[in-house]
Structures are given as C-alpha cells and as structure tokens.
Write a structure and sequence with these properties.
This protein has four helices and three strands. By secondary structure, it is of the alpha+beta class. Strands 1-2-3 form a three-stranded mixed beta sheet.
Length: about 80
C-alpha cells in the first residue's frame, strides 16, 4: 500500500492510484518532490464536506447556552478625534 506518487508514475498508473484512494484512503501526488495534489475517494470527500450538525444545533448544544450576556449597544457619543 502506497500513498505518495510522483506525477509521472501517477499518470502512468492512474487506475491504480484511484483504486488505492478508494480502498486505502487519500493518495498524495508530488511534482518535483513537492506535495501538490491530494486524491481522495468521493466517500471520503462527502464525509469531510458535510457539516456534522446545523448551526442552530451547534449553538443549542453550546456550554454557553444559558449564560446571560449583555448585548445592549452603548448610547455614548463617539470620541472626538483631532486631525
């Protein structure tokens, strides 16, 4: 099981690189020895792109949910600035 491929080799063995990504996880493709591309299966992609919960659920589950915050705006005039 290999997870890093030089670009030349990845092009020559593209089907194998895809199968490795599906069966064994993300595959790194390098160009001139520098990591440039990450190939992942659609299943792995869907796992990381989908939020785990809705934003409203995140705030409802927050440990700060019942903290009383003062969110009133100050009615003070702005400070004068000398130019």
């Amino acid at each position: 099981m290999k997870n890093a491929w030089q670009l030349q080799e990845a092009k020559a063995k593209f089907s194998k690189v895809i199968n490795e990504a599906i069966q064994h996880g993300p595959q790194i493709i390098t160009k001139h020895g520098v990591e440039k591309v990450l190939l992942i299966s659609i299943d792995d992609y869907n796992k990381i792109k989908k939020p785990k919960q809705k934003l409203s659920g995140f705030f409802n589950n927050s440990p700060l949910k019942n903290v009383d915050l003062d969110i009133t705006r100050s009615k003070d005039l702005p400070r004068e600035i000398e130019l």
